[in-house]
Write a sequence for this structure.
């Protein structure tokens, strides 16, 4: 949990970035005022999503690792409640997340890109070309991949408490998911084996596990899209996770 002061800092920083990136003149676009729930389907992929509010599109990515679901957007603050009066908020359950309604194959050779396919495919399904994105935790690597794959579509991005890699704990995310996410997945999907889960997680977290997983330091250094990184963490954590300092320094002012 995040204390009230840090929660306020996160909310204020995210709001400031959204307002700067999408002036009200651009924000007056059609959309749903009340929450709308539906599914986006492409082949064997089925993604559950919700839309709330009207205005310039804002893609929201919850934390929770591979169990990222819309319900996870309640912590450290609820961005739907915060932004629905000014923006068209769009959120989805991650493919194959425990507790979510989205499903699809394990694309072992391209795990990060498979999830990015879902995010971009959902935007295409909704007829959205350009959008902003706010992501928590695992949303950080997802956002960098969106910026790499679709730089002309992402207007601005906010990475709140983003996850990344450090050499002394290279297998942290692999270990957490092989023990938690993986066994729960195969209970629901008998066609998936733990051997497949291991290969998927190995490609995702153990093959070239550097920096923010999805892009290089040079990519972050050269990124021209407005990006705000919200850490709101203690000095002790900043020391333990030095990649966050490097990422912050490489992001354009």
């Amino acid at each position: 949990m995040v204390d009230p002061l840090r929660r306020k800092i996160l909310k204020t920083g995210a709001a400031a970035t959204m307002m700067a990136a999408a002036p009200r003149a651009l924000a007056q676009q059609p959309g749903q005022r009340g929450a709308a729930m539906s599914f986006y389907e492409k082949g064997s992929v089925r993604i559950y999503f919700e839309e709330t509010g009207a205005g310039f599109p804002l893609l929201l990515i919850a934390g929770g690792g591979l169990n990222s679901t819309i319900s996870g957007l309640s912590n450290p603050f609820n961005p739907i409640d915060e932004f629905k009066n000014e923006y068209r908020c769009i959120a989805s359950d991650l493919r194959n997340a425990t507790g979510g309604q989205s499903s699809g194959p394990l694309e072992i050779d391209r795990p990060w890109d498979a999830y990015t396919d879902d995010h971009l495919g959902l935007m295409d399904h909704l007829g959205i070309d350009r959008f902003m994105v706010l992501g928590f935790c695992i949303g950080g690597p997802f956002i960098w991949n969106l910026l790499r794959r679709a730089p002309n579509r992402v207007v601005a991005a906010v990475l709140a408490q983003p996850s990344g890699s450090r050499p002394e704990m290279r297998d942290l995310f692999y270990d957490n998911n092989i023990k938690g996410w993986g066994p729960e997945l195969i209970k629901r999907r008998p066609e998936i084996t733990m051997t497949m889960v291991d290969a998927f997680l190995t490609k995702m977290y153990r093959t070239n596990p550097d920096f923010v997983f999805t892009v290089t330091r040079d990519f972050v250094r050269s990124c021209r899209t407005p990006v705000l990184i919200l850490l709101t963490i203690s000095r002790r954590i900043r020391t333990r996770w030095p990649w966050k300092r490097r990422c912050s320094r490489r992001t354009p002012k």
User: Anything to note?
Assistant: Residues 51 and 90 are 5 Å apart (CA to CA).
